[in-house]
Amino acid sequence: MFFGSIPALVTPFRDGKFDGNAYATFIEWQIEEGSSALVPCGTTGEAPTLPVDEHHRIIAACVKAADGRVPVIAGCGSNDTATALDHLARAAANGADAALVVTPYYNRPSQEGLIAHYMALADASAIPIIVYSVPGRTGVGLTIETITRLSLHERIIGIKDATGDLGRVSATRAAVGEGFVQLSGNDDTALGFAAMGGEGCISVTANVAPRLCAALQEACHAGAYQTARAIQHRLYPLHAALFSDASPAPAKYALMRLGRMTEEVRLPLVPASPAARAAVDAALAHAGIA
After folding, report:
1. pLDDT at 290 over 90
2. Residue 79 backbone dihedrals phi, psi, to 5 degrees
3. Are residues 36 and 215 in contact, defined by beta-carbon separation less than 8 angstroms?
4. 23, 160, 252, 253: which one is catalytic?
5. What is the mean pLDDT of residues 27-55?
């Protein structure tokens, strides 16, 4: 069910409020351009700034706009297990197909704590869970041993790996076996991740260049790595530019340039700096997008 190019959707705002019309139009474009699933309310969707009711209103809006054409993987992570349980229940009630659950952040639990956290969530969840390891943001990551133990639960079906360590793809496959979904969490290494055996990428860049990101994944799955490398060369400056300032401000600037939404972000984020804007402008031109 989960493969290919999967955008970690930005959340459009207008005058401080969620812009539902822009979101529905944006999702329609994503599906038309070849995105194979959608992730609302992740980090790129500014989930830390979303009150709980708004968070789930946005997930419901995504499910409605997708209309069963592609799966919706709802952001449900928290550093509090009880809050994550509430997110899971609400996401399932709103029709999400699966949940993306980041490791608890700031409180930095041990590996045993992470196992207990995820097992409690999986035991209670009505939908499958994709665990998310991004130690650069959360301060704690999932070891291969922990992933192996988690994979034994029938509702823990895969991982978004944003460690940047491509060897983990092979190490995880050797430990867990086939059938456990491995998705890259980094656009810049998505090509290498696919070559090592990954199924796809939960992508920031796909917000801005969905057709190219989908084509890269399709080429990888077909074994057409010369084509994939050519697409990677077009996209690589954009991968970098979208993180030249606090994400998702550069992505929202790019989408404003493409006429998709305003560039508005919520505090403590601020709009992209002049230097980041210049980097995005150059990268869009290099990719042939604008």
Report:
1. no
2. -85, 5
3. no
4. 160
5. 98
Q: Is 67 left (phi over 0), alpha (psi -120 to 50) or beta?
A: left
DSSP the chain: ---EEEEB----EETTEE-HHHHHHHHHHHHHTT---BB-SSTTTTGGGS-HHHHHHHHHHHHHHHTTSS-BEEE---SSHHHHHHHHHHHHHTT-SEEEEEPP-SS---HHHHHHHHHHHHHH-SS-EEEEE-HHHHS----HHHHHHHHTSTTEEEEEE-S--THHHHHHHHHH-TT-EEEES-STTHHHHHHTT--EEEESGGGT-HHHHHHHHHHHHTT-HHHHHHHHHHHHHHHHHTTSSSTTHHHHHHHHHTTSS-----TT--PPPHHHHHHHHHHHHHHT--
Between CA 194 and CA 199 the distance in angstroms is: 6
Specify the length of the chain in residues.
290
| Tokens representing residue 219 in the block | 């080429």
Mean pLDDT, the chain, rounded, equals 98
Q: Decide if 23 is catalytic.
A: no
Once rounded to an integer, what is the mean pLDDT over residues 66-85?
A: 98
Query: What does the pLDDT read at residue 280?
Result: 98
Give the pLDDT confidence of 193-224 residue by residue, as tens digits. Answer: 999 999 999 999 999 999 999 999 999 999 99
Task: Encode pLDDT of 248-261 as tens digits.
Answer: 999 999 999 999 99
Catalytic hit among 105, 118, 132, 253: 132
Asked whether residue 1 carries a pLDDT value surpassing 90, the answer given is no
Task: Tell me whether residue 160 is one of the annotated catalytic residues.
Answer: yes
Q: Hey, what domains does the chain have and what are their CATH numbers? A: 4-223 (3.20.20.70)
Q: Return the structure tokens found at 210.
A: 């969905």
